[in-house]
Amino acid sequence: MSLAKLPLPAQLRGVRAMATAAPRPALSGLSAAAKSKAEKISQDWKGTSATGANTKNFIGGEFVESKTDKWIDVVDPASQTLLTRVPETTPAEFEQAVDAASQAYKTWSRTSVLTRQRFVMDLQHQLRQNGDAIATSIVLEQGKTYADAQGDLLRGLQVVESATNIPTALLGDTIEVSKDMDTSTRRLPLGVCASIAPFNFPAMIPLWTIPMALATGNTLILKPSERDPGAAMIISELCQRAGLPAGVLNVVHGTVPTVNAICDHPSIKAISFVGGDRAGKHIYERGRASGKRVQANLGAKNHAVLMPDANKNHALNSILGAAFGAAGQRCMAISVAVLVGTAQSWLPELIERAKKLKVNQGFEQGADFGPVISPASKERITGLIASAEEEGGIIHLDGRGYEVPAFPDGNWIGPTIIEATTTMRCYREEIFGPVLTVITADTLDDALAIINENKYGNGTAIFTQSGATARKFEREVEVGQVGINVPIPVPLPMFSWSGNKASFLGDVPFYGPGGVNFYTQNKTTTALWKAEDAIGNKASVDMPTHH
Ligand code: NAD
Question: Which residue's CA is the nearest one to ligand 1's atom 11?
């Protein structure tokens, strides 16, 4: 279906609504501590601002002001204070970015793998040195707590560190297939690649793709989320400081027009997308239609199964942390708890513990989680809570109307726990907010049936002290990432991401060995060098017989 015919997605409606609602002027709504941090971000970094100036495009090694007439306000979700304005990169600027990446590819793809390894090593050093700035930008634009923002960076940094192994990862195979005849494979880059990121991990997701694409010899066009591009801009500048030649990484901005330009451009060979179902399906189909390799990580509904023999304290704390951390805006958030048998009697304690969680601006002491990303997102989430009420669910803990006195305009939603059934909207749809839906099941088999019927397959977890129960669950559950007494089983990058079912479109997953495969193509060469032709052999004087 043509995208023009689809209604505007909720988050873009939100952006428009925010833009017309006129954000609070720069710096005016920030705490004193946040204000000085915002000023420092604007002073120290060329591509981003937290004091109301414009975010730049990064093209051919330069941070350049866009000539667009379409700007998107980025505001602090705790106070609606203007931080920066993001351009909808113009078609001409987009073309310049692709040109820069195409030119740079000619030399970058031929640099030695040790040069590219050195870049990745220097990038990890730069990221460690400047982690505070990246985490600060994330708190301001995205709203998560400072500790959580550091985790966002750390999980990306782990991918950078794993990419320092690139010489070994790119080793090919050779075998002598016949006398004096060798067949070998070489892993070669694809060309110009593109990466389209979501709002919820502004550092981690760009860092899933930048090191893997560049270390394998590709050049990259990155389009960060238009809602929080600051971390990506700082990371781009750090790539430059780490010695990355001009044009190897370029950053463009915007929404549907920029994304469609990526999908359609014939010089772009591959797209890595992380985000919601609707955009992901569109990008996958449009990108594939123009012959591109596409990997698309999509939405999720992750269930935690609580067995009666679980270590109760560990299980309840793990479920709460995974449900409410980052205000539930993680693709691996536990959004459904399945209480099995007598574990159902633990529900009151789960609720009591959830009540103690503190919601506040991300720099404030004691904040467990922050606001949700936008007023539109808040409206969507509170609408889903209301739908549970209408459909007969029980709202045990209601986060609607949560107030933070120092930040009256924030997109606050307190921890919410709903007892529901699998037919209700709050169960069927991804909520992406601080809402835990509780479902009851009589047996492990019933819990497995619930999870396996769910369309998504990103993550799941079981809490039990029985190895046999855990093993049966792990073997039979149809979900790609399984935790046993581990609430958020995101594989570290010696493995690859392995979400499945409706949580993934494509064939080759992100980072780890999958990342190397995604960003490379094999060339297989068969060569014959006859031993008798070696220079220095004696000439044959016999009558040729053609044998
Ligand atoms: P989103 O789909 O709204 O946006 C992601 C990217 O796509 C952004 O860069 C945005 O500009 C672009 N985009 C949005 N709508 C578009 C459209 N109609 N056409 C073309 N491009 C469009 O996602 P989000 O709200 O930023 O992120 C949250 C979603 O991402 C959740 O569904 C979450 O589960 C998912 N997510 C998945 C993973 C994973 O690994 N599976 C990780 C993080 C987030």
Answer: 255
At residue 14, does pLDDT exceed 50?
A: no
**CA nearest neighbour of 324 among 426, 434, 200:** 434
Q: How far is the CA of 296 from the centre of ligand 1 (A)?
A: 10
CATH architecture of structural domain 28-297: 3-Layer(aba) Sandwich (3.40)
DSSP 53-107: -BPPEEETTEEE----S-EEEEE-TTT-BEEEEEE---HHHHHHHHHHHHHHHHH
**What pTM was estimated for this model as a whole?**
0.94
Q: What is the DSSP secondary-structure string of 25-68?
A: PTTTTS-HHHHHHHHHHHHH-SS--SSS-BPPEEETTEEE----
> How large is the average pLDDT for residues 414-420?
98
Ligand 1 pocket member 399 (CB < 6 A): no
Polymer length of the chain = 547
Fold of the 302-484 domain = Aldehyde Dehydrogenase; Chain A, domain 2 (3.40.309)
Q: Domain map of the chain by residue range?
A: 28-297, 302-484
Q: What average pLDDT does this structure show over 67-93? A: 98
How far is 433 from 388, CA to CA, in rounded Å? 14
Q: Which of 193, 239, 263, 331 is catalytic?
A: 331
